[in-house]
Structure formats: structure tokens, C-alpha cells
């Protein structure tokens, strides 16, 4: 009897989650952001860089092709030999009408090297509106107009954006993009629909300079692993609201080997666990295929088979394409395996750094980075 009840619960809850995810994903895909006003947006976009990443030039160039004018783009590295420097120099030549500044500053202000870079960049920002965005992000032409507009409301602390995966042409990269598109983004939309605002994503965080000063500047994040999450959390603790923009940006997914993808996703999952242990413990209900299989194994009734079929159809709808739907069972099994591993352990790899997530508010550097990786370690935004 207990096994039957457990199987019924697993099947129904997992299928219900899959259907909710499909509905909200569909709704988001058909809802366009309202037209943005053209004109001048005096905002400083802070871009911490590390190495000549794939599509780096193209991603940065999207900021130079905005429907507004007046933006300052501040790119920064720590290593004077970082190959990203040449990319920024080329950008300055190709877009002479755009205010693009390159900062080369080796100073380290804490264990989080990306935040060290941001501290150095912020000193060169000329405007009172600040936009922090990871280096592997491509944005639409109306991006700056949309993400800065809500900041006219003094009650808004930050504006952040969801993102979709843009994989290179490799199987594991496509599977990695599905981590974002099929699992992470739907989970955020469900949380958002339920009223939660406890999120902030490195893909984009826009805020006013006075808000940043109020929470202690980027220095308050210098020893935190999940710097993007805490940038939002500190503004919420100050009584300010978090806004999720209608704009969805694109992020590159470049892992071409299972080992690379596993390391990346394990870091995300362990970081999520460190921030919300109780919620993370119940994340298994979001892994549609393994949970439906387990539920049916425990309670193989015709009614539950019908429920599971509805869940599978919904899961395929969220995947979007036939090829992605066919990868969904493997995608969900890999997530389940990653979740099991993330339940234990405290170490994560961030570029060449190995860091600890024991303290949800900080990260202890446990191994010195290589010279190039110390340029900052902009890794992903992800659900931290």
C-alpha cells in the first residue's frame, strides 16, 4: 500500500509539474515584450571578461547595435596578456561611435575573481544606471531600453533577465542548452508565477548606482560564490523589489564533452543547494522522465499510465523540437544523477578554481587559479 501511494504521488506530482512548465513555457514564447522607446539611455554596462570565448566579439557587438544611444560599455580583464583584449580593441575600431572602455586591472579584492573584476570596472563607470552582464550573452536591439526602464521606479532594486541556451554544434552542448531551456527557465517561471522573487541572474542585473552603494557596493560580494543571487538578495533585504524583464537573452553553451557538462552542472546544483537546502531536497519532482518511470514501477495502474503519458507529452512540448524531445529522457536522467551527487559534497570547480559552498554567503578559495583564469572567472549566471 505504501509503495502504491508513493508511486501515485510521484507520478501525479511530476506529471503536474511537467504540465505547468509546458503551459508557462508556451505562454512565455508567445508573449512579446512591449515596444521600447527609442532615445538615449545613459547606462554603464559592465562586462567582466576572461579569454577569447567563442562568439565573444559577436556577443559584445550586440550591445553596440542597440535601439538607444548614450550607453557606455566597460570591458575588463585582470591579465594584460588576456586574448579578450584584442577582441575589445577590434570592437572599438568597428564601432567608433560607441563609448567602449577597456580596463586592465590586476587587483584582487576577494576570493570571487569575477567580483574583483566588477569592482575594478565600477570605478570607471560614468553613469548612474549600471547593467552587469556575463560575457557570453547576446542581447536584442531593445535590450537596454527594456532592462533600464523599470529603474525609474525608486522601489525597484534590480531588473534581471531569463536566458535561453545557444549551443555550439555538439551533442553535449545541446544537452546543456536543455538544462537551461527545459529545466531551469521553466522552474523560474513557475516560481515567479507563484510569487517568488528570490532570484537574480548573471545574464543581466540592472540597478541604480545608489542601490549598489546602499548594499555596500560590489565589495559586499567579494567573497560570495553566488554573487548574482546575493546582489539581488541584498537589495531585497534593503526593501527593494526584484523585477523579471520580459526580455530573454541568449547564452552560449560550449561544453562538447560529458565531463565538461557534468562539472558545470554540478557546480550549479551544489550552489543551488547551498542557497536553498530545503527547496533543493524536493527538486527531484522536476525530473520528469525518471520520476514518472519510478512512479509507474511502484504503482503500474492504467490510470497512472494515462497521467504519465500526459506528463511525457507536456515534457516533449517544453523541449520544443522532436530532436530535443528525444534527448529529454537522457537530459532528465543526467539531471537526476547530478542532483543525487549534489546532495553531498561542498566543492565546485569554477574555471581553474576549486571553491567551497559550505557557507551559502561566501566561497573560500581553496586552490590558486592559473594566471589566465584569474582574469575573473565569469562562468554562468545560472540559477544562482
Secondary structure elements and their pairing?
Layout: H1 2-30, E1 39-40, E2 43-48, H2 56-64, E3 68-69, E4 72-77, H3 84-94, E5 99-104, H4 113-122, E6 129-132, E7 137-138, H5 143-148, E8 156-167, H6 171-193, E9 205-208, H7 209-214, H8 227-237, E10 241-253, H9 258-275, H10 277-281, H11 288-298, H12 302-319, H13 322-342, E11 347-350, E12 353-356
Parallel strand pairs: 1-3, 2-4, 2-6, 4-5, 8-10
Antiparallel strand pairs: 6-9, 7-10, 8-9, 11-12
Helix pairs in contact: 1-6, 1-11, 1-12, 2-3, 6-13, 9-13, 11-12, 12-13
Pfam families: Glyco_transf_21
Signal peptide: 1-20
Subcellular location: Membrane
Describe the 3D structure:
With 384 residues, this protein is α/β, with parallel strands linked by helices. The chain folds into two domains: 9-29 and 273-356, no CATH class; 35-267 and 370-375, Spore Coat Polysaccharide Biosynthesis Protein SpsA, Chain A (Alpha-Beta Complex), CATH 3.90.550. The protein contains 13 helices and twelve strands. It has helices spanning 2-30, 56-64, 84-94, 113-122, 143-148, 171-193, 209-214, 227-237, 258-275, 277-281, 288-298, 302-319, 322-342; strands at residues 39-40, 43-48, 68-69, 72-77, 99-104, 129-132, 137-138, 156-167, 205-208, 241-253, 347-350, 353-356. The chain has an eight-stranded mixed sheet with strand order 5-4-2-6-9-8-10-7, sandwiched between helices. The chain has a two-stranded parallel sheet with strand order 1-3. A two-stranded antiparallel ribbon has the order 11-12. α1 crosses α6. The two termini are 39 Å apart. Residues 360-384 have low confidence and may be disordered.
Amino acid at each position: 500500500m505504501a509503495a502504491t501511494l508513493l508511486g501515485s504521488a510521484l507520478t501525479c506530482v511530476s506529471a503536474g509539474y511537467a504540465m505547468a512548465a509546458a503551459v508557462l513555457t508556451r505562454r512565455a514564447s508567445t508573449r512579446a515584450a512591449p515596444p521600447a522607446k527609442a532615445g538615449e539611455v545613459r547606462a554603464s554596462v559592465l562586462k567582466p571578461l576572461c579569454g577569447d570565448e567563442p562568439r565573444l566579439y559577436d556577443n559584445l557587438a550586440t550591445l553596440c547595435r542597440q535601439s538607444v544611444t548614450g550607453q557606455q560599455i566597460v570591458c575588463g580583464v585582470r591579465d594584460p596578456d588576456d586574448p579578450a583584449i584584442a577582441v575589445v580593441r577590434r570592437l572599438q575600431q568597428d564601432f567608433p561611435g560607441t563609448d567602449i572602455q577597456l580596463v586592465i586591472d590586476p587587483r584582487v579584492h576577494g576570493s570571487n575573481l569575477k567580483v574583483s573584476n566588477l569592482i575594478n570596472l565600477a570605478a570607471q563607470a560614468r553613469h548612474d544606471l549600471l547593467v552587469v552582464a556575463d560575457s557570453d550573452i547576446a542581447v536584442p536591439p531593445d535590450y537596454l531600453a527594456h532592462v533600464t526602464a523599470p529603474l525609474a521606479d525608486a522601489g525597484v532594486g534590480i531588473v534581471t533577465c531569463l536566458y535561453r541556451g545557444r549551443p555550439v554544434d555538439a551533442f553535449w552542448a545541446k544537452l546543456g542548452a536543455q538544462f537551461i531551456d527545459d529545466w531551469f527557465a521553466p522552474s523560474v517561471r513557475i516560481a515567479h508565477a507563484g510569487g517568488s522573487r528570490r532570484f537574480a541572474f548573471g545574464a543581466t542585473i540592472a540597478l541604480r548606482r545608489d542601490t549598489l552603494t546602499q548594499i555596500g557596493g560590489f565589495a559586499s560580494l567579494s567573497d560570495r560564490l553566488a554573487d548574482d543571487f546575493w546582489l539581488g538578495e541584498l537589495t531585497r533585504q534593503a526593501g527593494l523589489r526584484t523585477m523579471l524583464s520580459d526580455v530573454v537573452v541568449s547564452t552560449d553553451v560550449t561544453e562538447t564533452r560529458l565531463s565538461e557538462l557534468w562539472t558545470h552542472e554540478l557546480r550549479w546544483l551544489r550552489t543551488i543547494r547551498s542557497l536553498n537546502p530545503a527547496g533543493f531536497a524536493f527538486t527531484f519532482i522536476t525530473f520528469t522522465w525518471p520520476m514518472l518511470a519510478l512512479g509507474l514501477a511502484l504503482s503500474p495502474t492504467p490510470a497512472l499510465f494515462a497521467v504519465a503519458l500526459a506528463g511525457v507529452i507536456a515534457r516533449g512540448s517544453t523541449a520544443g523540437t522532436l530532436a530535443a524531445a528525444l534527448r529529454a529522457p537522457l537530459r532528465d536522467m543526467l539531471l537526476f544523477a547530478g542532483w543525487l551527487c549534489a546532495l553531498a559534497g561542498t566543492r565546485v570547480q569554477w574555471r581553474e578554481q576549486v571553491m567551497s559552498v559550505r557557507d551559502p554567503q561566501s566561497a573560500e578559495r581553496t586552490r590558486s587559479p592559473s594566471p589566465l583564469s584569474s582574469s575573473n572567472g565569469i562562468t554562468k549566471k545560472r540559477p544562482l
